[in-house]
Design a protein that fits this description.
The mean pLDDT is 96. Strands 6, 7, 8, 9, 10, 13, 14, 15 and 17 form a 9-stranded mixed beta sheet that branches. A 5-stranded mixed beta sheet has the order 2-3-1-4-5, with helices on both faces. It has a 3-stranded mixed beta sheet with strand order 11-12-16, covered by helices on one side. It folds into 2 domains: 124 residues, Leucine Aminopeptidase, subunit E, domain 1, CATH 3.40.220; 317 residues, 3-Layer(aba) Sandwich (Aminopeptidase). The protein starts with 12 loop residues before the first strand and ends with a helix. By secondary structure, the protein is of the alpha/beta class. It contains 16 helices and 19 strands. The longest helix is centred in the first third of the chain and has 19 residues. It comes from Sulfitobacter alexandrii. InterPro entries: Leucine_aapep/pepB (IPR011356), Macro_dom-like (IPR043472), Peptidase_M17_C (IPR000819), Peptidase_M17_N_1 (IPR048816). Belongs to the peptidase M17 family.
Length: 460
């Protein structure tokens, strides 16, 4: 089922959104039969409760959606999405009770509740469809949902079908859809074009590494997104334990998020000059894999001592960031499933980000709150710079000691951006347990917040 709204018809069933506090007054205005049905079924307005009410002929008369209390709503998001999965087949229209300020978020959540990853197995579709609530820009919400679905599909696809060539094909399909230009630099051409660290990380794999470079828009400020596209990460010669390798199909989650955000930007026609750079590689093991203690020279000329081949994401991002910075855009944003330290710090639900720009922070935090897309600011803590300086080379890709892992990774990346405002997102890209509008599996993080923040940020 497509994650789109339906048109209002004579067959639309009214849906009343009722908080626990509002239920008594609402019931008082209903016929005795409706009041009795509500009581008999134990409907209290608790968050996520759903109740369908038929008329005397057994046809849908109305439906109720529990909206809980202010306290219960504060502990989650996409509350109507939980109702959507419980209602009988049909088309529903919000008739009352949904606060205007919640309409966009709840409508989006309903659409995303219809998502299922069905590439390899048929999935049960969502039976309940929604008419766009009054005042909601349906086309805009559908475009945002489509961007999120693109991100989810890319992450959920296993590496057998989502290697570097497949990720490039997905970017090319997106470029074709919106008339964007795209170039893909492959294999040894990366050396010719001076992307040595992208080539080094990906050279051990059967599927050649590549750099994807997509451009769209001819007016407005310049925004460059850089997404980590490690399509599978074995850890290289510092091989991961089996348990740690189990989710590594999602190590291209930064690239997936960047492409999903690009879809949102292009589909909603934001007035920006958008560029998306994705270093797409597999970190594999073979005789020509890069080794611990190797020293690599980056595109920027900085040398990097390899103290762990499993800290490869920052290496491929470094070359791409240096390339992005040469164009001096108005904003560079990198997105990556980069460190386990970020997950330990804030868990899977928050998107940690790094920025020293108070205007960026203000715009993003406001957008995150408005779009129910939570983020958490982390520090570019300058005193830790010495931790990424090994002495034998300019930089260390894996400082010893285990402290401040996500911060030292962000500081490493910042060394490759000197001409442009820069922000970095260390996302998880995975929903470990099903939640309303978010089934277990790949998920976008910070993309909706960034989409909402782009124009206020760039037009400062």
């Amino acid at each position: 089922m497509p994650c789109t709204f339906v048109s209002k018809t004579d067959e639309t069933t009214p849906l009343h959104v009722l908080s626990e506090e509002a239920l008594t007054d609402w019931c008082a205005d209903q016929p005795d039969a409706v009041q009795n049905w509500v009581r008999t079924n134990g409907f209290t307005g608790a968050l996520g409760q759903a109740l369908a009410i038929a008329d005397k002929d057994g046809k849908p008369q109305m439906a109720l959606a529990g909206f809980g209390s202010e306290k219960s709503r504060a502990r989650g998001r996409f509350h109507l999405a939980a109702v959507a999965s419980q209602l009988p087949r049909g088309s529903y229209e919000i008739a009352s009770g949904l606060p205007d300020e919640s309409a966009e978020i709840e409508a989006l959540g309903w659409l995303l509740a219809g998502y299922a990853f069905d590439r390899y197995r048929d999935q049960s579709p969502l039976r309940a469809r929604l008419v766009a609530p009054e005042g909601v820009d349906a086309a805009r919400i559908e475009a945002i949902a489509a961007g999120e679905i693109l991100t989810r599909n890319l992450i959920n696809t296993p590496a057998s079908d989502m290697g570097p060539p497949d990720l490039a094909d997905s970017a090319q399909a997106l470029a074709k859809q919106f008339g964007a230009g795209i170039e893909v630099i492959v294999g040894d051409d990366l050396l010719t074009r001076n992307f040595p660290m992208i080539h080094t990380v990906g050279r051990a794999a059967d599927r050649a590494p590549r750099l994807i470079d997509m451009r769209w828009g001819e007016t407005g400020p310049k925004l460059t997104l850089v997404g980590k596209g490690v399509c599978f990460d074995t850890g290289g010669l510092n091989l991961k334990p089996g348990a740690s390798m189990g989710l590594m199909k999602k190590d291209m989650g930064g690239a997936a998020a960047a492409l999903g955000l690009a879809h949102m930007i292009m589909a909603t026609g934001l007035d920006v000059q958008l560029r998306v750079l994705i270093p797409a590689v597999e970190n594999s093991v073979s005789g020509n894999a890069f080794r611990p203690q190797d020293i690599l020279t980056s595109r920027k000329g900085l040398t990097v001592e390899i103290n762990n081949t499993d800290a490869e994401g920052r290496l491929v991002l470094a070359d791409a960031l240096a390339y992005a910075d040469e164009d001096a855009p108005d904003q560079i944003i990198s997105m990556a499933t980069l460190t386990g330290a970020a997950r330990v710090a804030v868990g899977p639900d928050l998107a940690p980000y790094f920025s020293d720009d108070p205007i960026f922070v203000s715009a993003l935090e406001a957008a995150a709150a408005a779009t129910a897309d939570p983020v958490w600011r982390m520090p570019f803590h300058a005193p830790y710079e010495s931790m990424i300086e090994p002495g034998i080379a300019d930089l260390d890709n894996a400082p010893k000691g285990g402290f401040a892992g996500c911060i030292t990774a962000a500081l490493f990346l910042r060394r490759f951006v000197t001409e442009s405002p820069y922000a970095h997102f260390d996302i998880y890209g995975w929903q470990p347990a099903a939640a309303p509008a978010r089934p277990q599996g790949g998920v976008g993080q910070a993309t909706r917040a960034l989409h909402a923040a782009v124009m206020p940020l760039l037009n400062r």
